[in-house]
Write a structure and sequence with these properties.
Distance between the termini: 120 Å
Mean pLDDT: 87
Number of strands: 10
Strand content: 15-25%
Structural class: alpha+beta
Oligomer: single chain
Shape: elongated
Number of helices: 10
Radius of gyration: 31 Å
Strand order of the largest sheet: 1-2-4-3
Low-confidence stretches: none
């Protein structure tokens, strides 16, 4: 802390270290930083684009504000988790709606930074809210979609038709979601599609998915049956010869 003798003010700088920490200090609609200034009499400022927090005021005001800010940051330490880059879109959601929803529901600050192959998800919140955020982020990564009021979920086994249902770059899934107003998550490893939405919309989307998948699955089953018949020496074209006993005796 330094002192300005001319104005009788004390000054201090706290390096917050991340945008998450900056947002924690700001609070919703800047409510936390406004409350901090009005209750301590300390002027608090964060330069736009910076993570350095500047404090100025009387010795007592700066000391009080500094202590409160450090306590606030300590109470919102949160955690970091690493996810595949391919899962970042699931965490953000369409237009960032999933990420905003998680932040709003858990009163947390979340930042996602991509690396070469993986991304680091940083979360700042109280201990209880951080655990809630962790569960919701993991559910987003796993492709689980929460049910809203009046919504249902249906799962369809896709088998070898998984890629066809997804489409190039997810084009088929995107089209189905848009046409039917549902959310569809396809787990490629499990070869299962999960549809979430209003009952009638889920039913319609399910029919369209089956229209894509069923011919492929049926063809695969038919091929497997034909291969099995060949292995056992049977064929649909083979006709077993029947010899009459009398004719056999005649020879």
């Amino acid at each position: 802390m330094c002192h300005n003798a001319a104005f009788g003010e004390a000054q201090d700088v706290i390096e917050l270290g991340s945008r998450n920490a900056v947002n924690v200090v700001y609070g919703p609609n800047f409510s936390t930083i406004k409350s901090l200034q009005s209750e301590t009499g300390c002027k608090v400022d964060i330069t736009r684009g910076s993570t350095a927090l500047k404090l100025s005021g009387s010795n007592e005001a700066v000391a009080t504000a500094t202590a409160r800010i450090r306590a606030l940051l300590e109470a919102n330490r949160g955690f970091e988790m690493t996810i595949d880059n391919a899962k970042v879109g699931a965490v953000y959601g369409k237009g960032g709606e999933t990420l905003r929803s998680i932040q709003d529901r858990t009163n947390s600050q979340i930042d996602v930074v991509r690396g070469a192959t993986h991304a680091v998800v940083s979360v700042m919140a109280t201990k209880e809210n951080a655990e809630k955020a962790r569960r919701l982020i993991q559910r987003a990564v796993d492709g689980e979609v929460e049910l809203g009021p009046g919504e249902v979920a249906e799962e369809i086994e896709l088998g070898s038709a998984t890629a066809a249902v997804i489409g190039r770059g997810g084009s088929n899934v995107a089209d189905l979601e848009k046409r039917h107003g549902v959310k569809i998550n396809v787990k490629s490893d499990a070869q299962v599609a999960r549809i979430v939405g209003k009952p009638e919309k889920v039913s319609a989307a399910s029919k369209d998915i089956l229209a894509i998948a069923k011919p492929i699955i049926d063809a695969e089953k038919a091929q497997a049956k034909a291969e099995e018949a060949l292995q056992t020496g049977e064929s649909a074209w083979q006709v077993e010869a029947v010899v009459d006993d009398d004719e056999a005796d005649g020879w």
